[in-house]
Amino acid sequence: MDFSLTEEHKMVRESVSRFVEQEVKPYIREWDRHGADFKVFEKMAELGFLGISVPQKYGGAGLDYISLGIVCEELEYGDTFLRVVMSVHMGLTALSLFTWGTEEQKQKFLVPQAKGTRLGAFCLTEPNAGSDVVGMQATARREGDRYILNGEKIWISLAEIADQYLVVAWTDMEKKANRDHSGLSAFIVERKQAGVKPYALHGKLGVRAGNTGGVVFENVEVPLENRLGEEGEGFKIAMFSLDQGRYTVASGSAGLVKACLDESVKYAQERKTFGVPLSHHQLIKQKIANMESDYQISLLLYQKVGWLKNVGQRNTRETSLAKWFSTEAAQRSSREAVQLFGSYGFSDEYPVERFYRNSKGATIYEGTSEVHTLMQADYVLGNRQDKPLRCNLPTYPFEG
Question: Which of 21, 24, 38, 86 is nearest to 60 (CA)?
Answer without folding.
Answer: 86
